[in-house]
TrEMBL record:
Coiled coil recorded as keyword: no
Annotated PANTHER family: 20BETA-HYDROXYSTEROID DEHYDROGENASE TYPE 2, RH59310P
Protein's GO biological process: steroid biosynthetic process
MF (Gene Ontology): oxidoreductase activity
Family: Belongs to the short-chain dehydrogenases/reductases (SDR) family.
Record key words, sorted: Lipid biosynthesis, Lipid metabolism, Membrane, NADP, Oxidoreductase, Steroid biosynthesis, Transmembrane, Transmembrane helix
CDD domains with a match to the protein in the record: 17beta-HSD1_like_SDR_c
SUPFAM superfamilies noted in UniProt: NAD(P)-binding Rossmann-fold domains
Transmembrane segments: 6-27
Entry protein name: Uncharacterized protein
GO CC annotation: endoplasmic reticulum
InterPro entries assigned to the protein according to its UniProt record, in alphabetical order: NAD(P)-bd_dom_sf, SDR_fam, VLCFA-Steroid_DH
Length: 308
């Protein structure tokens, strides 16, 4: 009698635990779907007014690709733009394009981010009198035109320093320049362009993917530190966007054009602090993550010879 009673109690207990587990996963799944729907679909109609952050937006690496597209899109949405890049000629061309198309003010800062810490006092001086609401830390570079072993990087002594200066130091130093005033005013937006290449270790892209995971972690930590004080730090991690960096690969369902990417990514502001930037890339990330977990992390790693 006792045994029958105990087993039915156990059965009921298991049913209750199972029910709660199913409910928990259903809720989690629905929540994720809602967040994705809000960030990538609803955001098309439900956009944050970016002018509320301040009058000026600063964009690094602003003369081509994703940076140029962000600069144009921010101007279209009513901000004045500071363009920061290496080539004076390209800077003036993009500044002209923005002034003509959107009637916004522009300012250009010619600098080379590979140089290192010495460039920042001059940048600080040029930004000093501006009400900067948004910073887009976009500039970034790879260290070779193709996949290479770390030891095969050409001129490694110089190249390693250049990549770290451009991809990591620029993000931290530019943030240091604008963040104090944003915190003082209690509002601001910093957008850091990381990469999907940071989601997993990427052999043959070792230095690049390592610099990008730095950007991701730095952004997410800063967002936790400063969002309670009114400053949002958004990390954008794209898959493939057709730019010079990707040899202007053809645009497709998987590959975004830079203008489309920037427009969709800016729509996600206020909806997500860590985003792929657009629906197509978010779906690719999900598929990639599912493949990763169904293959098993360690098997996946060994496909790429990460572990012996
Ligand atoms: N394209 C993609 O598929 C993809 C995917 C994931 C992440 N990303 C990231 O997105 C960001 C932009 O990439 P992109 O594809 O748009 O690259 P891109 O087309 O090569 O453009 C790079 C921009 O940065 C400037 N720049 C390059 N080196 C510089 C330096 N040392 N100092 C100052 N400015 C410099 C370039 O202008 P000048 O030549 O005039 O200096 C250009 O305006 C990068 O951080 C990249 O890692 C790109």
């Amino acid at each position: 009698m006792d045994t029958v009673f105990n087993s039915s109690l156990l059965l009921h207990g298991l049913v209750v635990i199972g029910g709660f587990t199913v409910l928990f996963y259903l809720f989690k799944f629905s929540w994720k779907c809602w967040c994705g729907f809000r960030a990538y679909v609803l955001s098309e109609y439900w956009q944050t007014d970016l002018r509320t952050y301040g009058q000026w937006a600063v964009v690094t690496g602003a003369t081509s690709g994703i940076g140029r597209a962000y600069a144009n899109e921010l101007a279209r949405r009513g901000l004045d733009i500071v363009l920061v890049s290496r080539s004076e000629e390209k800077l003036h061309a993009v500044a002209m394009e923005i002034e003509r198309s959107y009637g916004r003010q522009t300012r250009v800062i010619q600098t080379d981010f590979t140089v290192g810490h010495a460039i920042y006092p001059a940048i600080a001086e040029k930004l000093d009198d501006l009400d900067i609401g948004i910073l887009v830390n976009n500039v970034g570079m790879n260290y070779a035109g193709m996949l290479v072993y770390f030891m095969d990087i050409a001129n490694p002594e110089q190249r390693i320093t250049e990549v770290i200066n451009c991809n990591i130091l620029s993000v931290t130093q530019m943030t240091r320049l604008v963040l104090p005033r944003m915190v003082e005013r209690g509002k601001g937006l910093i957008i850091n362009i990381s990469s999907e290449a940071a989601s997993e270790p990427q052999p043959m892209l070792s230095l690049y993917s390592a610099t990008k995971i730095f950007v991701t972690y730095f952004s997410r930590c800063l967002n936790s530190e400063y969002s309670p004080r009114g400053v949002t730090v958004q990390c954008v991690a794209p898959f493939v966007v057709s730019t010079n960096m990707t040899y202007n690969v053809a645009v497709s369902a998987f590959v975004k054009s830079a203008p489309d990417f920037a427009r969709e990514a800016l729509n996600t502001v206020g909806h997500s602090s860590f985003t792929s930037g657009c629906l197509s890339h978010a779906l690719q990330v999900r598929t990639y993550a599912n493949m990763h977990s169904s293959l098993g992390g360690s098997q996946w790693d060994s496909v790429f010879s990460l572990r012996n």
